[in-house]
Input
Amino acid sequence: MPTDPTEVTAGIHDLSFATTSLCLTHEELARHTGAPVAKYHHGIGQTSMSIPTEDEDIVTLAADAAAPIVERHGSDRIRTILFATETGIDQSKAAGVYVHSLLGLSPHIRVVELKQACYGATAALQLACALVRTDPAQEVLVLASDIARYDLDSPGEATQGAAAAAMLITAAPGLLELGTPSGLFTRDIMDFWRPNYRTTALVDGKASLDAYLDAVDGAWLDYRARGGLPFEKLRTVCYHQPFTRIAHKAHRRLERAEGLTSTVQAIDEAIAPTTTYNQVIGNSYTASMYLALAALLDSDADLGGDDIGLFSYGSGSVAEFFTGRVGPAYRAHLRADAHRAQIARREPISYAAYRDLHTRALPVDGTPHEVGRRTLGRYRLAGIRDHQRQYRATRP
Ligand code: HMG
Output
């Protein structure tokens, strides 16, 4: 009998993230920039940021994030991998194909890459849910992997970071059942972009903040106009967090749209459980909002049955406000210890070491290049040969 897609649930059954092996603390950064460290800790809400080793990239991070999901659930039902990134490594080949190979998955899977700045993973999630609603027997692996890089000595430098989130999307989601409708908001604006010839982003910092907050209004009003839940029904909201202080500003903006005026402390309390991972990892572009979700789910809060809001923003710009209902037994699906271990194992580096890594670049002329083993992760970029990236597992 044909399935009515509107009757099939879909959402996130498992969520796992990985980050890099190194980090730079904002205390160390402040010693170089001369900025008061309070500007970083309180003004933007960041205490450290993940820095990749030379042998870590979006593929190794995504494979590291996805491997525990495949180990826990097997891969027999995965029919699609959607890889969202704005740190693409090839203009043609999808980065997810390398991950597919590293994880040893069946050839009977479609793999594709998606891009719209930090919003890409939300497009992937919605497409994944649509696929699962059409055929509830299949599962989709959504990967969001990015390395946020700004110029040295620029204001954006303090908002770098790197991570990958992997999500298994199924018709019986243990963690979060996605709700409808979505509120959408698209506007052509040059707030942040990275032309093909650059390895660092260009950004108009102040304009990007205004664009982000205007998109909060735009997406929320569309969400409500389409019959979305009223604000007071939401337990909290996970925002895209290029730096965590922006979640406070965004929450205030949403409240204002509803005619509410909570105290600074009340807003901080509402969003605090969503910021714990991002404040030490930094911006991870496509993965950022999903790290906010992971932090909330991994927190002490009892969320079973609660509706939570999600605000996804990608510069340029596209935004979406949507909701999800936390599963009654969601705690059985968490990976809180593994997530905390990912963060705890990072080695803090000096500003000089960070600067050295930032200025190093892989050859762009096809010269054979070997990369020494440095990562603490399971997969590494071993080098480039014949214009081809060589990936290896670090353990048998
Ligand atoms: P800046 O000029 O270095 O910082 O740039 P500032 O002077 O605006 O200060 C930042 C905050 O610290 C301010 O708070 C200060 O008051 C406060 P606010 O007034 O805004 O509430 N401050 C202090 N607080 C306590 N003690 C002190 C102190 N001093 C100052 N002593 C900026 C900051 C975020 C603009 C910069 O880091 C930047 O350009 N970052 C990159 C762009 C960005 O993250 N934009 C966010 C929206 S766009 C987005 O989210 C998309 C994105 O993820 C990309 C994508 O979609 O792909 C970026």
